[in-house]
Amino acid sequence: MARRIFPNAIAPLSVLAVLTLLGALLPNGPLAPPAASAATITIVNADGAGEGFNDTTPATPVGGNPGTTVGAQRLYVFQTAAGIWASILRSNVEIRVSAQFGPLTPCDASSGVLGSAGPTTVHRDFPGALIAGAWYHQALANKLTGSDLDPQADINANFNSSVGTSTCLTPGWYYGIDGNEGTQIELLPVVLHEIGHGLGFSTTTNGQTGLYLNSFPHVWDFFLFNPATGLHWNQMNQAQRAASATSCGNLVWDGAATTAGGARLLGPKPNLHVNSPAAAAGDYDVGTASFGPPLSSTGVTGDVVLANDGTGVLTNACEPLINVVAGKIVLLDRGGCTFVVKVKNAQNAGAIGVIVADSVAGCPPAGLGGSDPTITIPSVRISQSDGVLLKANLTGMNATLIQDPTKKAGTHVSGRVKMYAPLPYAAGSSVSHWDVSAEPNLLMEPAINTSLSSDPDLTMQLFADIGWLGTSGVEVVENSGGPLQFSLGQSMPNPGADLTSVRFVVPSRGRVVMRLFDVSGRLVRTAVDELLGPGAYSAPIPTAGLAGGVYFYRLEAGGMSLSRRLAVLP
Q1: What is the spatial distance between Cα 102 and Cα 158, in angstroms, rounded to a whole number?
Q2: Distance (Å, rounded) from C-alpha 437 to C-alpha 352?
Q3: Where do the domains of the chain lie, and which CATH numbers do they carry?
Q4: How far is residue 403's CA from residue 300's CA, in Å, rounded to a whole number?
Q5: Tens digits of per-residue pLDDT, 445-455?
Q6: pLDDT value at residue 494
């Protein structure tokens, strides 16, 4: 018998941002979804008169958003986000998102809650469930079973109307959809992020306690994996799950589509590689600096020496160094002064690079903040425990600071993509987000980044792993007859708007990739990246959010490639 339940916890986004479930729908009616979507996602207006989507405050059209009131601009952003998700997912069941704006706390001038979203209900053991005894978010459960399992909205979402006031994130919301937010906070990626949680990017298992929801795992738990123990969450006991949620880089996503997507999408990894002595040799996770030159692919190599400034805490480099460090990489301790002061003191003494060891226990840190245009040497930050290990083995130590092209940022040594598992546990953020070490930044990281705008990036692959149709909704179509030949059809419609569909045929089993490029040759979308058997297929090319103009899509399979032209309507 199919079971459903109302979850009591969901995952947040922040600038710092937190998610909460909302109450019942208000009777304001649905907002029309974008046309030509592979799935239908409807935004349901849950705001009262004069607030949120109904705010009639005049506004000037901005960044591709034609709205002339604050409410209309908010609605346009939500419909744009719905169109992007709809263009890359397939479901025969309408996905309804109940959304509203209202004051959210905590929030101050520089940080606070941006918004929240999650599934209204979760379901298990329904017809079509891929894993027995596992909870599924309602939208995915509906998709798998082919019918609406609950008449309520599938996703509840709440966003902060206080953003932009004197007491809450004063730069305010940016309602453009072009990624040119400047110092403001772009709403589009925040909405994409929150809808992503509601579609399935979170688990109902409590990461802090390891406790299952009503004694059953979530489909996510079959993919959360700890390489140190060799166990998935559904194989662990409660205590093991809780420990895994604070294991720093040892909680990863063990899904084939995501692992393959990470290898393709993620960039080179910032790395500290200790060459000698043997007792400390190996790779160390690092945070990079906002000042000085970025790490390079060739790297900076030198002997490592501990800082000595002769005053107070000798190793914090808050005063000019008195030991010989010329031509060497300086290891120093955090605390006592700013990062730029430490690194500049090392540079003035002739150092070629700096390693800052953290002063408190925790995971590999995010980085070194500050600004000083006169700093010309690279610097990185490591965890306290890694600093202790290096200090214990300084004799004969040689190391390289490098942007390592042989490794992928945000991945474990096993090649799997890391999930966010900081120490201490971050309520509302841990487990149900990518790790912050990913580069480029990913949509489903726990905090918003200015580099994000309209690209769902690696979320598509995770959705493929948990049961949404393939990486991009590839469907088998009836073959026209005759022997199979490698072929690529013309997109339909062409010109396209939010979505065009392409048919193609592959003669033998293998990896099939279809990408979309602009006229300069820049990759703008990956429509297909899957292992497919011989046959005829149809796949959407999501074009929502792209500027109007001419693009090219290319099919690659079996060592062959074919290209066609596609026009996108503005």
Answers
A1: 7
A2: 24
A3: 3-199 (no CATH), 219-265+416-465 (no CATH), 268-408 (3.50.30.30), 472-568 (2.60.40.1930)
A4: 10
A5: 998 888 898 88
A6: 57
In 3D space, the residue among 131, 125, 121, 127 whose CA is nearest the CA of residue 143 turns out to be 127
Note the helical H segments in 355-399: 384-391
Position 341 scores a pLDDT of 98
Please say whether the beta carbons of 386 and 335 come within 8 A: no
* For residue 20, pLDDT beyond 70: no
84 three-state secondary structure: helix
363-377 pLDDT, tens per residue?
877 789 999 999 999
- The predicted-structure confidence for 293-346, as pLDDT tens digits, reads as follows 999 999 999 999 999 999 999 999 999 999 999 999 999 999 999 999 999 999
Count the neighbouring beta carbons within 10 Å of the beta carbon of residue 130.
Answer: 12
Which residues are CB-neighbours of 259 under 8 A, at least 6 positions away?
253, 415, 416, 417
Least confident residue range of 8-12, 326-330, 454-458:
8-12
Asked if residues 418 and 370 have their Cβ atoms less than 8 Å apart, the reply is no
How far apart are alpha carbons 368 and 291 in whole angstroms? 8
- CA dihedral of 348, 351, 352, 357, whole degrees rounded to 10: -110
Q: How many other CB atoms sit within 10 Å of the CB of residue 175?
A: 24
User: What is the rounded CA–CA span in Å between residue 26 and residue 153?
Assistant: 11
- Give the CB-side neighbour count of residue 433, counting CA atoms within 13 A: 33
Length of the chain, in residues: 570
Helices and strands, number each (H, E), in the chain: 8, 32
In the predicted model, what is the mean pLDDT of residues 136-150?
A: 95
What residues does 253 pair with on adjacent strands?
224, 417
Residues 6+ apart with CB under 8 A from 528: 470, 471, 472, 474, 512, 513, 514, 539, 555
pTM of full prediction above 0.70? yes
Structure tokens of 401? 């600071």
Q: What are the structure tokens assigned to 371, written together?
A: 């600004």
